[in-house]
Amino acid sequence: MDLDTKTVAASHGRAFPMKAGQYARIVNTHGNQVVDTWAVAENDVTETSAMDHTRSVNSNIFVTQGMRIMSSRRRPMLTMVADSAGARHDTLLCPCSRELYEQLGCTEPHRSCTDNFHEALAELDLAVPFTPASLNLFMNVPVEADGTVDRLPPATTAGDMVVLRAEMDLTLVLSACPQDLTPINGAARTPKDVAVVITDAYDEEHAR
């Protein structure tokens, strides 16, 4: 199969139009990179992926292989059909924002997943008037029995990937998280590029 691989540059975002039934293969090229992920319905930008409905439908605070990502109208938007790492992808933590980096002590402007989301949509002449909660692919957020959450480096290795199937016509938005002040993107705290391939068919051989 001739695969047209796109790059989401480190600390930046990118949007990908998808038709129902298409597949997105998202490759953690270096193994350490968290990818904040959203879906926006093609026919109404106010219908977006919704982590509250996703948790409710799956009865789980994580997204794993076989689970669906639901919309704000409780309709399936994406299904995770493959995950080479067998990871538990976070739905709890917010996308980083300029305010978050200010609270972490940044005195200069810092790229963020929130800005990446809106910038990526703007490249397609789309705009959403709010920032939805993100599905945080590859993010390692263990949860204790008392509800405490931690933020650990990804438990993935170079080349690990997930495959998402679009369940409706939508725009997939991905952000290679710019976080470089905590180890959420690995102990080196250095954001990296990720690779994306959009295909019409699911090729299991390339999803291992």
Write the layout of secondary structure elements.
Elements: E1 5-8, E2 13-18, E3 23-28, E4 35-41, H1 51-58, E5 62-63, E6 68-70, E7 76-83, E8 89-90, H2 98-103, H3 113-122, E9 135-137, E10 160-166, E11 170-176, E12 194-199
Antiparallel strand pairs: 1-12, 2-11, 3-10, 3-12, 4-9, 4-11, 5-8, 6-7, 7-10
Structural features, described:
Helices cover 12% and strands 29% of the residues. A hairpin with a 5-residue loop joins strand 6 (68-70) and strand 7. The two termini are 15 Å apart. It has a six-stranded antiparallel beta sheet with strand order 1-12-3-10-7-6. Strands 2-11-4-9 form a four-stranded antiparallel beta sheet, covered by helices on one side. It has a two-stranded antiparallel ribbon with strand order 5-8. The radius of gyration is 16 Å and the shape is globular. It has 208 residues and is mainly beta. It has one domain (5-207). The protein contains three helices and twelve strands, in the order ββββαββββααββββ.
Which terms summarize this structure?
single chain; 4-stranded antiparallel sheet; 6-stranded antiparallel sheet; mainly beta; 12 strands; 208 residues; 12% helix
What is the ordering of alpha helices and beta strands?
EEEEHEEEEHHEEEE
Instruction: List the domain count as a whole number.
Output: 1
Q: Number of helical runs?
A: 3
In total, the number of strands is 12
Q: Indicate the percent of residues in helices.
A: 10-25%
> Uncertain regions: pLDDT < 50 for 5+ in a row?
none
The largest sheet has its strands arranged as 1-12-3-10-7-6
Q: Largest sheet at a glance?
A: 6 strands, antiparallel
Strand content: 25-35%
> Termini, distance in Å?
15 Å
Q: What average pLDDT do the residues reach? A: 95
Radius of gyration using CA atoms only: 16 Å
The outline comes out as: globular
Structural class: mainly beta
